[in-house]
Description:
The chain is α+β, with helices and mostly antiparallel strands and about 575 residues long. About 35% of the residues lie in helices and about 25% in strands. A hairpin with a 2-residue loop joins strand 4 (about 35-40) and strand 5 (about 45-50).
Amino acid sequence: MAVVSSISGPIVKARLKDETPALFELSYVGRDGLIGEVVDIYGDEVVIQVYESTEGLTLRENVVFSGEMLSAILGPGLLGGILDGIQRPLPDLDFHIKKGVKPFPLNREKRWHFKPYLKSGDIIQEGTVIGEVKEGSFVHRIISDIEGKISFIAGEGEYTVEETVLKTEEGEEIKLYRKHPVRISRKFKKRKAPEIPLITGQRIIDFLFPIAKGGTGSIPGGFGTGKTVLQQTLARWSDADIIVYIGCGERGNEMTEVLTEFSRLKDPKSERPLMERTVLIANTSDMPVSAREASIFMGITIAEYYRDMGYHVALMADSTSRWAEAMREISARMKHLPVEEGFPSDLSSKIASIYERAGFVQTLSGTEGSLTIIGAVSPPGGDFSEPVTRHTRRFTSVFWALDRELAGARFYPAINYIMSYSSYPQNVSRWWKNISPEYDELREWMIYILQEDDKLQRIVKLLGMEALPEEQKLVVETAGLIKEVFLQQNAFDPVDAYSSPERQIKMAQFLKTMWEFWKKAHTEKAIPVSVLKKQEVITEFIRSKYSIKNDQLEKYDDLIRKLAESYRNLIATYGE
């Protein structure tokens, strides 16, 4: 027990009476029982970060310590849920949270069909799968977090999440749900190299700047560059089994749009509602700032829970800048010494603590699962040198830099193909080579053309295209087709919204074959680029991004054959 001695927004100081709490212990502040967390202890005084509005709180009100850390409630019923930053179910509260309300995040009344895998007398260890529950289209594996000899295990049947389904001779129990502290990562056997790409269907990502399952990525971009749309696109089309989407400090109307959009979207693979494989955590800008920090750790803990079942989970955080701004405000109220741009001195380690929990792992149960973390960053004025973007760049292996000029030109995804990079091409190369042995060669060629074009664009902007010699015009025109047909993608077109890896390879093969014929035509007959690009087959290829579906790849083979025939005839007859 303690009493409130100081109030500064979400930061409350309390003088201890008869007990000393632990750091990060959950606490209940004042007559309303506001939910908070101990963040500092010195002498007989503690500092509590309150996750709710402290309006109306007065001095000398009581503070009660719970004896446990802020924890996630994990069990059947999470999928499809819409939660706030400390896991209160928003639909149950009509999206209006009253002070001190602490509803259970799972449905206590619903009965789940439990199917046991073991029997009495079996020995269980931490990580043993004791049974399963069907959760929508997913198998929800119930995994032991204790050790011992089974004295009782429930038979196949219907149970609520709070009913005991297993007991050990040592007296320990397992229910269909469990708790796990959000600041402590869940255990696994070992971390493995991320070598399988997370396929998103976005050509500029999958082909040029891939992210591996279990990897980390960041999406920095100024206002209006399409961060939220890109994350929603990744959530819909990526081949992750489970999506955890965290709206951290975003505007309420933007988060409402996300909730509305996700509710009516269908999973393109199963044709079932996308929400069946999604957990949404909404912590909008009008909610208490302190809950923003908790929301990301809450989302990661939920994601790790499904990873431990052997699923591939993708977590989208939008945006970590708002999360960092909340830390800056809290740090200022705690009178900590600020560093660059007012951020706390531990900003770097806080950002690292998020991304280090990603990974491709062998779970305690022996299966393989992954957690991929992709964070959006909103640098003020699009300044990528500001602290949050700079430190995020240090701890993520993929950097998809969104460009205001590209967005202004309606080029989507507005990923700057010169500033962006990925550390995973070598990791995922073997996977891509199973589709086409040419992957490395095609990717390196495309990056070379785009880089050369970037150098030449400065001359084009100053002097015009006519100032370039024909060899350089070949590069610029080829890069133009790469940008228009390959990199640019319409998220609202039924054909172009998603491009399979096989289709991406076919498109790249066409472009490289075209480049080789253009070079040959220029070398042998000095055919000008203006003639080369006017061949009918080029127009057909441009239209193909909207007409050739992922299951019609033979049409690309026909286009490549037509391309070869067209340019052989042109080279043979030009000038006659």
